[in-house]
Specification:
9 helices, five-stranded parallel β-sheet, 4pyrrole_Mease_sub2, Cobalt-precorrin-4 Transmethylase, domain 1, EC 2.1.1.107, Methyltransferase, Cobalt-precorrin-4 Transmethylase, Domain 2, transferase
Length: about 270
């Protein structure tokens, strides 16, 4: 019996126009699509009715598909002869467990291919008018997960080193860090980062309800709470955030032309006393 191929596909940040040409073709040709919960609804609606769409979300509320079950589904469908798209938000190998799934498929003898996508680590900042690197502001870019508790002794992240990178002029992008925003900002302050360092949070980047809030290391937690920032959101720390002030007017005007995005929305004004 023919063994199908599994394609580990990045869906990008959410706007279907930001899918790669190859990703779009594979969605049309697949027998089965196993998609994550962060993949936008507009992209989930793209495959034809003949494709079997299966939700394999991992949710923070406890309802989740285990990684072992996802691995099993990929192998079972492929060995039954199906071509499978394993669809992930952003890029499959940037905090998307694409590497782990590739190892599982290889161990099972299932042919696979990795199809990169636009990672939100870059797209989230860029679509909001914040260049992750800039010749005048930042020559380095560090991307970390914001899930970990920065105070735990066995953390895989060295927040002291991250703080030094920001202080030296680098850009820090934190993915999946809404829940631990206060802890992460406190860890950077403890590492010596200036409390006035600019910070931005971009919620649902490139989607119709995209939303951006800006502040500083000291104020961003309160600002995010004021406007109700919810996951998925990207946090950007560094001087590049100030570039947004010089380009945001154009972004608001041009945003109306985005086929799936609509106008770029900004945070409401800070209440005055």
């Amino acid at each position: 019996m023919r063994v199908g191929t599994v394609y580990l596909v990045g869906a990008g940040p959410g706007d279907p126009d930001l899918l790669t040409v190859k990703a779009r073709r594979l969605l049309d040709e697949a027998d089965v699509v196993l998609y994550d919960g962060l993949v936008s609804e507009t992209i989930r609606d793209l495959p034809p009715a003949s494709v079997d769409l299966i939700d394999v979300s991992k949710r923070g509320d406890g309802e989740r598909t285990t990684q072992a079950e996802i691995n099993d589904r990929m192998v079972r469908h492929a060995t039954a002869g199906d071509d499978v798209v394993r669809l992930k938000s952003g890029d499959p190998c940037v905090f998307g467990r694409g590497g782990e799934e590739a190892e599982e498929l290889a161990a099972a003898g299932v042919p696979f291919e990795i199809v990169p996508g636009i990672t939100s680590a870059v797209a989230g900042a860029s679509v909001a008018g914040i260049p992750p690197t800039h010749r005048d502001h930042a020559s380095s870019l560090t991307v970390v997960t914001g899930h970990e508790d920065p105070t735990k002794a066995d953390s895989a992240l060295d927040w002291g080193a991250l703080a030094r990178s920001v202080t030296a002029g680098g850009t820090l992008v934190i993915l999946m860090g809404v829940g631990r925003l206060p802890d992460n900002m406190a860890a950077l302050r403890a590492g010596g980062v200036d409390p006035e360092t600019p910070v931005a949070m971009i919620e649902r980047a490139s989607r119709a309800d995209e939303f951006t809030v800006t502040g500083t290391l000291d104020t961003i937690t309160d600002r995010a709470r004021e406007v109700g920032i919810d996951p998925p959101a990207v946090t950007v720390v560094g001087d590049v955030v100030d570039v947004r002030d010089r380009v945001s007017e154009y972004l608001r005007a041009a945003g109306t032309a985005r086929s799936a995005g609509g106008p770029v929305r900004d945070e409401p004004p800070v209440p005055t006393e």
